[in-house]
Design goal:
The structure is a homodimer.
Chain A (H helix, E strand, L loop, with lengths): L1 E10 L3 H9 L11 E11 L3 E10 L2 H8 L2 H7 L14 E7 L2
Antiparallel strand pairs in A: 1-3, 1-4, 2-3
Chain lengths: 100, 100
């Protein structure tokens, strides 16, 4: 099992804008080989921003990497960025292999 | 759905020690109300350390918080730390609420 997370720092007050952007996004993930589940996660807030993480579960790192090279990936990210001023810095990708 | 993650920086060369410590741990989680799944995740490495994250899925933040106040939690952490010199700094907790 492989978990792909992208961490986003969203300016305070723009949390709902960010969530709605993800809700309206067409990810095309359900038809991707090896894809198991997707969630958008909301973490803690400080005085400047709220941490969010996209969280997708895959059968393997190979299936995730194949998706990042696919047309489905390109389509999913074609209109993904939204209003730039809600982001405090670029997203930070982290990939994890389940070892237990 | 709530996801509780604890991030650990493990000194290079001690990855297997850390994984074996978790494999031998009696977590007592299966009997905890609201608990859904546990994985130990291995992330990327740099020249000093490898990132790991414990990753547990719960029905709600309330069920996770109730567990942290329980005897089961105390038992699970009684012998959890292991050899101190494998850790580069303290673990970093992050809790996430699934919003999609």
């Amino acid at each position: 099992m492989f978990i792909a997370m992208n961490r986003f720092k969203i300016a305070i007050g723009h949390e709902n804008d960010f969530i709605e952007m993800w809700k309206s996004r067409e990810s095309h993930l359900d038809s991707v080989p090896g894809f198991k589940a997707f969630h958008l996660l909301q973490g803690s807030s400080d005085e400047n921003c709220t941490l969010f993480a996209s969280h997708s579960v895959w059968e393997s790192a190979d299936s995730f990497n194949a998706w990042t090279q696919s047309d489905a990936f390109r389509k999913a990210h074609a209109h993904a960025s939204g209003a730039k001023d809600i982001y405090l810095g670029p997203p930070q990708f982290e990939g994890f292999e389940a070892v237990i």
